[in-house]
Amino acid sequence: MKITTYIISGIALIVLIFNLTKIDVKAPLEKDSYTAVLTSIASGCAFLLATLIRVVRKIDRLTKK
């Protein structure tokens, strides 16, 4: 599970960085920029969820000791 969360985090960061480069700063909510904004938000959420899962599992291991 630990490796899976790192893989998900890595993929989410790659997608986030890629989509941030596709956003048009002058019109972020038009045409392809809108898709890039939505995908950036989604990949940011995926990264945060994977990080949260790692933290929760670490806390769980520490409390069981």
Task: Give me the Rg, rounded.
Answer: 15 Å
Question: Could you give a short account of the major beta sheet?
Answer: none
Total DSSP helices: 2
Mean pLDDT value = 93
The H/E string reads: HH
Shape: elongated
Q: What's the number of extended β-strand segments?
A: 0
Binned strand content = under 5%
Helix content: over 70%
Structural class: mainly alpha
| Head-to-tail CA distance between termini | 20 Å
Instruction: Enumerate the spans where pLDDT stays under 50 for 5 or more consecutive residues.
Output: none
Fold and architecture overview:
It is elongated and about 55 Å long. The chain has helices at 2-22, 31-64. The two termini are 20 Å apart. The mean pLDDT is 93. With 65 residues, it is mainly α. Helix 1 runs antiparallel to helix 2. It contains 2 helices and no strands. Helix content is 85%, strand content 0%.
In short:
The protein contains two helices and no strands. The chain has 65 residues and is an all-alpha fold.
Key phrases:
single chain, mainly alpha, 2 helices, elongated
Per-chain topology:
Elements: H1 2-22, H2 31-64
